[in-house]
Design brief:
Elements lengths: L1 E7 L11 E8 L2 H12 L5 E4 L5 E2 L4 E8 L4 E6 L2 E7 L4 H10 L15 H7 L2 E2 L2 E2 L4 E8 L5 E4 L1 H4 L16 E11 L11 H7 L7 H15 L7 E5 L5 E3 H10 L6 E4 L2 E3 L2 H7 L6 E2 L2 E3 L6 E4 L5 H19 L8 E2 L1
Parallel strand pairs: 2-5, 3-5, 4-20
Antiparallel strand pairs: 1-2, 6-7, 7-12, 8-9, 10-11, 10-12, 13-19, 14-16, 15-16, 17-18, 18-19
């Protein structure tokens, strides 16, 4: 178990922002997670739990303890009615997707190249290209900090929503996740109808994609529009795509007949936040050392030397302009500390 003082978090956030914490604890298995829980119960200082830092914006040093999982391991537990895959909470999410595709399981392929770790995937309910991780979660194993007991959490208990779960609200910083089990259907059809996936497959001359071909296509699409955080610090999509009522959508569609949209149900429509940000003229613009990415307006970037507060200022300026132009509030997907 790692137990470090005055620890730099620069390598633990993909914005590449320098911030420090008073104490850093990292566990590699369930036994160490229980030790960490005991240490947290014995201190009056606050704590936060982080994953890979790909959904994190640090605005200041943290006067408390930061906890991180380094639990590794990917294992196929059974191939009965469905495939059950268990993953350590510290595994990189995309490594899990790659492992599943390599072993003949393509259910998670639309979630390829999403940054972050397994534990954070079930907190955030990550999603892309018409899929969400909550569709596949069977069980979450965790140590409850207040009791030190190991608990089993079902997806129904998590109350999953769009990029949302109880882990982000009343369960915030309450559990040390150690293991996630995913239930992957054996005969799930690959979904190539979302966004520009089919067009890209056709461009490549692929008529019926394998899971491997679909994964590479999604990787290519994401790489073409998302910056490498090692080159330009970012947290991927900074804003959630808003879901509006049908009346609001109908009003906007008269003004913007070419507005992209996705039907959620009969009464709700999802409108891409990136499109609205671009319509407000923010794509490629900077504010101080922070900027809106030139290829994808949904992404805010560290242009070099940006502070967390500068990125927050840019975020608020973008939100204000979208509100004025479209009458819609857009909200950060990123956890701001």
């Amino acid at each position: 178990m790692k137990d470090l003082s005055d620890y730099s978090l620069k390598e633990h956030n993909t914005f590449g922002i320098e911030a420090r914490c008073q104490r850093f604890l990292e566990y590699v298995d369930e036994a160490e997670a229980r030790q960490v829980a005991a240490l947290l119960r014995d201190t009056a200082s606050p704590h936060i739990i982080i994953g890979g830092g790909s959904n994190l914006l640090l605005t200041k040093d943290f006067a408390g303890t930061v906890v991180h999982s380094a639990v590794k391991g990917i294992r196929l537990e059974t191939r009965q009615d469905d495939n059950i895959v268990s993953c350590g909470s510290g595994e990189l999410w995309d490594d899990v997707v790659a492992w599943c595709v390599l072993h003949g399981m393509g259910s998670l392929v639309n979630l390829s190249l999403i940054p972050g770790e397994v534990g954070a995937s079930v907190v955030q309910n990550i999603g892309a290209y018409g899929a969400e991780v909550s569709q596949y979660v069977q069980e979450i194993r965790a140590v409850e900090i207040s009791t030190g007991e190991t608990v089993s959490i079902t997806p129904d208990e998590c109350r999953y929503g769009y990029r949302d779960s109880r882990f982000k609200h009343e369960w915030r910083n309450r559990f040390l996740i150690t293991l996630v089990r995913y239930r992957l259907p054996k005969h799930e059809e690959l979904n190539v109808e979302y966004g520009n996936i089919r067009a890209e497959l056709q461009r490549k001359g692929i008529v019926k994609a394998t899971a491997g071909e679909l994964r590479q296509t999604i990787i290519d699409i994401r790489n073409a529009k998302l910056p490498d955080p090692k080159v330009e610090g970012n947290a991927g999509s900074f804003f959630m795509n808003p879901i509006v009522g049908r009346k609001k959508y109908d009003e906007l569609s008269v003004l913007y007949p070419d507005m992209p949209h996705y039907m959620v149900d009969e009464d709700h429509v999802k409108i891409p936040a990136g499109w609205m940000i671009e319509q407000c003229g923010w794509k490629g613009r900077t504010l101080g050392h922070a900027g809106v990415h030139s290829k994808q307006a949904l992404v805010l970037v560290n242009k070099g030397g940006a502070t967390g507060l500068e990125i927050v200022q840019l975020c608020e300026a973008v939100r204000q302009d979208v509100k004025v132009k479209f009458g819609i509030d857009i909200h950060p997907e990123v956890n701001i500390i």
